[in-house]
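Hi everyone,

Forwarding the result from last night's run.
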Amino acid sequence: MFIWMSLYFALDCTRLTRRGMGNGRHLAEALRWSTEVEVGAAEVLAAGLGMAGPMLVAASRGEFALGMAASLGALAASGVGAGASARFQARALAIAIVPVALAALAAAAIAGHGGYTHALVVALALIASIAGGYSRPYALATMRFVMFLVIIGNVADRIPERAQLLALLAAGAAWTAVLTLLFGALVRRSRRRDPRRPRAPTGAPVSAQPAARRLARWKAVLAQPSGWQYTLRLAACLAIAQALRSLWPDHHLYWLAFTVVILTPRQVEALPIMTTQRALGTALGVLAASLFLVYKPPVWGMIACVGVLAGVRPLLKARNYLAYSAVMAPLILLLLDGSDPIRPGLLADRLAATLAGAGLVIAANAVARGFAARPGPR
């Protein structure tokens, strides 16, 4: 039944994709390669070594599964550039880590209670989505919170000792943060020696609006029905995903919830470019990772694969979001499923969850557009 529902959603996705392509312009834009943002070797090395390091240490001690959890913490701190100063770089690291730390605490607190846990995840996502409307930085932070809440919640089900889980996540994040600061210092030192090299940003972008004005704008947005469209779409899709996970617990459908979180856009569009990039990239990444796991790679092969994927992730994020999604999906899957025995039907489950998640998001967007198009009272 779940497979048939996924196929139905896939057909709906295909129909909307054909409608939105516009003689191939949509797909061409989704495949466009950007070179506007510079990504240095230091950022790539810090991200790759940051995630591979904990796995290597854990594997040498015969505790590979614990190394996976630590690498998930490393993921929270990876991808931060060198910056113009250590202070700027440390601030960027804090902005990246704080939402994940809150998600880890929340996931550890609510895990292990079955359907109540699933309901609490939806409730926390709903609250976070409302808070994200305050400003763009808040929107990015709250989306990051919800994404890691879903991921870490799945890890918490496998590591019963919550303190151990939080310690592993913190250790992985700290290790990557130290590497990032170290490589950043080396990059800044080389730039001082060679003034012809391009300079890093001198500070974080500052909003032109004061806090009081942003708060007033946020309240005004929430006073209108349109101000709740993202919250309702995300909560509805996530609730359905969690319900399906409860109905079919043997299919490990946490990936359905993850797909919903990363695909749901804040603004409703017929078929936004980023949704296409995320959906296609995630499907390709899930397929590649599932086939890789089916062949049961050795531990060293798993570590090398995670290190390479983590290293190229910052580069691809700046170049093409479809390629970035195609790397991010297998990276998460390897961290979550790489230490578990591969059971029959894993590939079908992952692809079905990806298609169903994309279909839920597209259906929710269509409903939201329908309500927005309805004429108001005269």
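The longest helix spans residues 162-193.

Cheers,
N.
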